[in-house]
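Handout for the seminar on molecular recognition.
Each group receives one record of this type.
Step one: identify the two inputs.
Step two: read the structure output and locate the region that could contact 5-O-phosphono-beta-D-ribofuranosylamine.
Step three: write two sentences on what you found, then compare them with the reference statements printed after the record.
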Amino acid sequence: MVVLVSGSGTNLQALLDATADPSYGAAVVAVGADRVGIEGLARAERAGVPTFVERLNDHPSRALWDEAVAARIAAYEPDLVVLAGFMKILGAPTLEAFPVLNTHPALLPAFPGAHGVRDALAYGAKITGCTVMLADAGVDTGPIIAQEAVRVLDGDDEARLHERIKSVERGLLVDTVGRMAREGWTVTGRHVRIGG
Ligand code: GRF
């Protein structure tokens, strides 16, 4: 898989750790980012995984950035692209060439977008969680693959709740990617099924 990141990369780290065991069934062949100087890239470098960066502002248009990202990914011939805290919407060049999996810190379809944790807190939700889904052209609208719930506790702020969600999210992402790699998957409309 190629993993794309924009931040601290703890989900990436969980994948890197899992792939150290050959029986996991998948490997990270490259890590890409839309910005420099992030811990996610440093994690890849420490693991000896090739990295690349395509910054939107370095391209004359979003369409050309999309083409550049897709070409960078294609160079590694992955079977899967994983967005692990990648904070940009990918366009058709990548979405049409590869299956793309995304992870989101809320129980979709509730609280999509860049502030899923903040929005769930502000709404007063008592249960939120995380969702692993296929990416499509929308914002967190793709078919859901797996979800887990996390309780909102009295006194939670965004940072504390997000950390609790991320500790569940990392396990869900690792488990889901591994099962998809080992067992394959089918998509029928909005329904994703892993294995035969
Ligand atoms: C995750 O909660 C992801 O769902 C969200 O940003 C967080 C990324 O965390 N979009 P990390 O960079 O993997 O630590």
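Reference statements: The mean pLDDT is 97. The chain is about 35% helix and 20% strand.
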